[in-house]
Amino acid sequence: MRRAYFKNNWVAALVVAPQLLIIFVFFYWPTGQALYWAFTLEQPFGGGSEWVGFENFQYLLSDGRYWDSVWISTVYALATTVLAMGMAMILALFADRQLRGYQSFRIGLIWPYAVAAPAIGLAFRFIFNPSAGVASYLNYAFPDVWNPVMNGNHALTMVIIAGAWKQVSYSFIFFLAGLQSIPRSLTEASAIDGARVMRRMWDIQLPLLTPTVFFLVIINITDSFTDSFGIVSTMTAGGPARATNLMVYKIYEDGFRGLDYSGAAAQSIILMFLVIALTFFQFKYVERRVHYT
Amino acid sequence: MKLPVLSTSVLAFAALTGAAMASGEKIKFDYWYGLSGQLGEAVAGTCDRFNASQDQYEISCVGQDGYANAVQNTIAAFRAKQHPTVVQAYDAGTADLMMSGEFYPVSKMMADFNIDIDWNDYFPGIANYYASSTGELFSMPFNSSTPVMYFNTAELKAAGLDTPPATWEEFEAALVALKASGKDCAYGYAPDSWIDLEQFSMAHGVPIATNNNGYDGLDSEYVYNTTLHVKHMENIKRWYDDGLLEIRTSQGGLNARDSFAQGECSFYLGSIASHATVGKLVDGAFEWDVAMIPVFEGTERKNTVVGGASLWVLSGKSDDEYRGAAEYLKFLATVESEEWWSANTGYIPVTKSGFDALNAKGFYDNPPYKGREVAIQSLTYTEPGPLTRGIRLGGFIQARSEWVNEVQAALQGTKTMQEALDTSVSRSNDVLDKFARTYRGKQLP
Amino acid sequence: MIERTPVLNFVTHAILFTGLAILVLPIYLVVVAASQTLPDVMAIPAKLLPGDQLIVNLKAAWIQAEFATKFQNTIILATGVVVGKIVLAALTAFGIVFFNHRLRMPIFWMVFITLMLPLEVRIVPTYAVAANALSPFQTILDVTGLVWLINVTTGVEVALNWNLLNSYTGLIMPLVATATGTFLYRQFFLTIPDELVEAAKMDGAGPLRFLRDILIPLSTTNMAALATIMFVVGWNQYLWPLLIITDPAYGVAAVELSRMVPDSNTTGGDVPNWHFAMAGTLIVMLPPVVVVILMQRWFVRGLINTDK
After folding, report:
1. N or C: which end of chain B has fewer CB within 10 A?
2. What does the pLDDT average to over B188-192?
């Protein structure tokens, strides 16, 4: 991409300085400390630590329990991203037709974004209760078919649905914006050429949506790895039998509750690298297919 | 002389904050507690009462919304030197606090400030949990509880039982009888390490780990996959498979306590601390009572130990703040305070004289307090022996979590209970190992 | 709408309606629970129709949780985050898109990586920094021997201290440090046509002029979008305020909400007041929802990349 630039690099340094300073103090410095803990056995109250090199990592990487957690997190990330973006895209494509009631639909579909994660967790817990919530009616009809308390797969499904719900609004907003930035002239021209609605969706709107898709895939996947804590902690506390033990939750449990700072620090580093690798991969290989203009 | 710009502003800051502190007359100190909800309000009540009872010190109490949060926030604050003087830490966090050495043992503190406390007045079953190997109390017992068996009197009668079961064998027979009399949920259950593993082992006098449950050294190992505990958990699994008990958790709708309180299930094994809440929830809808938790037939019953939390005084504060903390702890140890606390929560008094005074007043003769003396009975059934002092194992929170997750897996049927307990023991031993290495060279006080 | 497609229109409406129902259902249940009495809300199976206690519960929740102060604090927090974010993100994105220096991508990545490690995971050391925001610099000065040097040459002991606990600054600053806004602005700035930049240079305008006179006006809708997002994020903050605020006068709404539903598993038991908790949820949910609805017109437009 050829770009026109300004020459004065001192100005550049000046403008980026504030943010860099803040992220240095509030992100990199603390993260550096946490990084250090990953290579030692750290006492919670301070007061001493012992250097153990890569031992914490070795323990983790040879622990079947840890790999279970990685697997569950990956499943969760993919499932929520696909569900949320799929549903959002369909809704956006149809909303963009701007039929009657468009304004209300748009409002109605956007505001769930404003709800906090713990509140969502609580509401969904209520819904999915096998004995008390809406799902209990299902259990009346077919006894014991839905039991997230004892069945790990059910619990994971429940958490995925809640997670996807959280992301739909956000993705919907971006898709709608992306669609509305496609010049009307294009769609009109192709209509004149005889292309029907669905055809236009497929041939014009979808390809031109690729920058938005790219952006959203990154954000959705990153968020589902890093932002999923609130939902798991209110709905399942990682269970049953660790079936919903997402990596982020495991870190919090081991570090915060279990007071195992070193283990938690090592897990955090692995998580961070995993997400960085995923994003880097997306930037390198997927961004090529994005049409920016 | 050139002053770096930053240090000038620092001086200004220091001057400002210094001035602010000097202008207050009372000596202030901070207390972070973990209880929340109605119990948290009761704690705040004790602070208000303390502040009202004297005008030299002012305690500032901040609820941390949960025991785990209280401990973690204290650690974070400690590392930044912004920690409170007093913190309410739960039983599972005892070993970490102890090993850090960053606390002021309360027995020493009271002696330093010439405050007379009769340490022998504390129930041994409570004091031993928080004492050093030489019997010196490190933290102040405060909200102590022990598990009891809640039962629905009417439903038991209807099933043909006039007295509550005293042994597990009788308990199973009771479950069978209840189911036969048409009750859907005889026993509302959720795996709880505190009751099923810890208190069970105490009452039966079997070890949870070597070194007398960790008291004698840091090189302990878990052994509960080889004790009576296995038989008990296998029973639980059998009862679950046969429908004699139902799993009740908050995530599933009603937890075990509320299931009992709403009349859904006939039995509930839980902390005496819930006694007040259960009373409120039941609200006279049916007759219920509590009894000691069952033991296996032929076992010589031993004392159970406490749960709840105790108050720790942290290091790195000023003498004034320590004096204030000492006064507050002394205030809590008075009979009036204990009475107030027992009346407003389900917790039991921690001193013998407190209990005696309440008994003399007929406190435990009538509802809503009737029945709580059962907890004291359970705690004092025998003098604490080497195996029934308590638990002093590092990383215990993680060990509890391992136990719960493995038991859940066994209940689901993905492995046998013995396998589950074996895995739990092996992983928990790893935790102990790490703990010992983290504190290499240090001793348990 | 270009042609008449009645069947497709019907399908469109059906799809949109279903989507709406799915999204709104959980909130409906929250409203139902918030309008019932305690026995009703704990009933099994759940009562799915609203009760009549809504106003009563809302009032009770408002007073019980002292939401008045909390709302004030949360508004300050959210607004601070919004302003901080908008300004900083614009500046940084500007610096990496419109200048050609080798550090462009490294800086972008440095900023972007802050999204990859959630706060939950680095919370203890971040707290230590909040307790003394100048401690990194103090440590650097110590380690490089500058403290000793300054001491020796001028006799002054450098002791930097800036305590951010229990303060608005402490609440706001770490939240301003993340990368969402920068990423958004970068994507937007990348679509600014080269011709605009060339034209500005030909007019003799420096980069700052370009920023102020051309870029900012073009970005207004972008800023509106970012402002809305950051307001919601700031408003719903839970973990960070929980840790650094111990003075109730500085409490925020989300933390207060969580206190309304005590976790009976860890604190020895209490009656969970679900109806109050759900009422509280509605109260806490209201401001961000209102903001999103008010701003949603700008919001959507703001994410459009070709508004020249």
Report:
1. N
2. 90
Give the confidence band of A262 by pLDDT, cuts at 50, 70, 90.
confident
Q: Which of A167, A159, A199, A198 is nearest to A87 (CA)?
A: A167
Tokens encoding B291: 């009894």
Kindly report the pTM of this predicted structure.
0.81
Give the rounded distance of the alpha carbon of B320 from its chain centre.
Answer: 30
Mean pLDDT of B310-334: 90
pLDDT over 50 (residue B8): no
Q: Which helix (H) or strand (E) holds A252?
A: helix A247-252
Q: Which chains touch B (3 or more CB pairs under 8 A)?
A: A, C
Give A145→chain B minimum CA distance, Å: 14
List A residues 152-191 in contact with C (Cβ-Cβ < 8 A).
165, 168-169, 173-174, 176-178, 180-181, 183, 187-188, 191
* Distances from the Cα of B304 to the Cα of B134, B150, B308, C302, angstroms: 21, 16, 13, 65
> Is A52 within the bounds of a domain?
no
In a domain, A7, yes or no: no
Q: Is the dihedral of CA B274, B277, B280, B286 positive or negative?
A: negative
Of the candidates C155, C163, C258, which has its C-beta nearest B65's C-beta?
C258
pLDDT in tens, C14-23: 888 888 888 8
**Whole-number Cα distances in Å, C265 to A74, B273, B308:** 29, 12, 12
Domain contains A16: no
Does B258 reach chain C within 8 Å, measured CB to CB?
A: yes
Chain A residues in contact with B100 by the CB 8 A cut-off are 43-47
Of A284 and B224, more confident: B224
Q: Do B252 and A129 touch (CB under 8 A)?
A: yes
Residue B443 with chain A: CB contacts under 8 Å: none
Query: Beta-carbon neighbour count of residue C110 at 10 Å?
Result: 18
Q: How many domains does chain A have?
A: 1
pLDDT tens digit sequence for C251-302: 888 777 777 765 544 444 456 677 777 788 888 888 888 888 888 777 666 5
pLDDT value of residue A81: 92
Neighbours of chain A (3+ CB pairs under 8 A): B, C
Calculate the CA B22 to chain-centre distance.
Answer: 39
Give the domain range for residue A168: 60-289
In angstroms, the CA A227 to CA A198 distance is 35
B201-211 per-position pLDDT tens digit:
989 999 999 98
CA-to-CA distance for C35 and C33, rounded, in angstroms? 5
Chain B residues in contact with C150 by the CB 8 A cut-off are 4
Q: Which of B249, B253, B395 shows the shortest C-beta gap to A258? A: B395
* Mean pLDDT (whole number) for C130-154: 78
Tell me how close the Cα of C255 comes to any Cα of chain A, in angstroms. 10
Cβ of A45 and B96 within 8 Å? yes
From chain A, the residues in CB contact with C169 under 8 A are: none
How many CB atoms sit inside 10 A of residue A70's CB? 18
CB-CB contact of A172 with A85 (8 Å): no
A12 belongs to a structural domain: no
Answer yes or no: is pLDDT of A180 > 60.
yes
Cα-flanking dihedrals φ and ψ of residue B93, to 5°?
Answer: -90, 0
